[in-house]
């Protein structure tokens, strides 16, 4: 049974961190190393949290004196990981019990990495629609990122692969997107699994980075870094506009319909309807 490292960057969100840690502790796969990087916040070695740490096969608590930002904190965790495999978790999200065992069972060295679908907490109708659209595991290439982030915010891969690449801390956003894109360019296709094994919590009232200007600025840096053209990501940028409630021209709507055969546009508009109650 190979060791799997799970890293969690955190800062001053102890209640959410406790839930995340418990979700890792409760995995059916037990050979897990937990790595928490405290990004300059109050110590996580509280009386409430410390008992959990001792229950892991291996546990590292890295407390930074000053904040370096989540991407750099993740890189510190990756550098210190001892696992054969590695995966990440944000402190405001949590795993379902079989996530790690599912990844280990499905692993094949021919893939750059594995990803799995997520459940958005409190959006059961949206999750149902996605289930109706996505019925099986799928293989993607790096070019799939031109249309959408097909791998989500976390992946599962070999620790040595992630250590050789790591997050680009110079980007103002999209650090995970760019790293998954880069891994796929270097190591080939990746496998997206059908089953939902992670819950994304967008209802806790604390900040998640969703600024469109920052995304656009970061995307331009990605384009420059990888010597791509802005038109390569036309579909992705239109998807973002829909996500942020920006009306599209008829021409752009037709482009999305043709490009994605209704799927992405329908799901995005459905999500906006669930969030705002209207499409105007």
TrEMBL record:
Q: Does Transferase show up as a keyword for this record? A: yes
What's the superkingdom here?
Bacteria
List, in alphabetical order, the Gene Ontology terms for molecular function in this entry.
transferase activity
Residue ranges constituting the Glycosyltransferase 2-like domain according to the UniProt record: 5-133
Query: Which Pfam family would be a valid example here?
Result: Glycos_transf_2
Q: Which CDD domains match?
A: Glyco_tranf_GTA_type
* Cross-referenced InterPro entries: Glyco_trans_2-like (IPR001173), Glycosyltransf_2 (IPR050834), Nucleotide-diphossugar_trans (IPR029044)
Q: Does the keyword Cell membrane apply?
A: no
Supply the alphabetized keyword list: Transferase
List each coiled-coil range.
none
User: What's this protein's name?
Assistant: Glycosyltransferase
Q: Which organism is it from?
A: Vibrio gigantis
């Amino acid at each position: 049974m190979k060791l799997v490292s799970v890293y969690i960057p955190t800062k001053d969100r102890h209640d959410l961190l406790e839930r995340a840690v418990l979700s890792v502790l409760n995995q059916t796969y037990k050979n897990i190393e937990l790595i928490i990087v405290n990004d300059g916040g109050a110590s996580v070695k509280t009386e409430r949290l410390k008992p959990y740490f001792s229950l892991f096969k291996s546990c590292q608590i890295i407390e930074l004196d000053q904040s370096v930002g989540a991407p750099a904190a993740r890189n510190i965790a990756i550098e210190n990981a001892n696992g054969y495999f590695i995966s990440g978790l944000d402190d405001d999200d949590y795993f379902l019990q079989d996530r790690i065992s599912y990844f280990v069972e499905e692993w094949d060295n021919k893939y750059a990495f594995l990803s799995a679908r997520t459940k958005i907490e409190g959006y059961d109708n949206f999750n149902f629609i996605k289930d109706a659209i996505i019925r099986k595991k799928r293989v993607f290439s790096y070019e799939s990122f031109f249309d959408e982030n097909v791998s989500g915010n976390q992946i599962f891969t070999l620790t040595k692969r992630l250590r050789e690449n790591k997050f680009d801390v110079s980007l103002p956003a999209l650090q995970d997107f760019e790293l998954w894109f880069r891994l796929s360019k270097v190591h080939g296709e990746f496998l997206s699994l059908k089953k939902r094994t992670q819950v994304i919590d967008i209802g806790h009232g604390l900040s998640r980075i969703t600024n469109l200007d920052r995304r656009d600025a970061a995307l331009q840096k990605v384009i420059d870094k990888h010597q791509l053209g802005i038109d390569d990501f036309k579909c992705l940028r239109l998807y973002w506009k829909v996500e942020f409630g920006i009306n599209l021209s008829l021409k752009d709507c037709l482009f999305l319909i043709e490009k994605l055969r209704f799927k992405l546009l329908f799901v995005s508009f459905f999500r906006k309807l669930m969030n705002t109650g209207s499409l105007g």
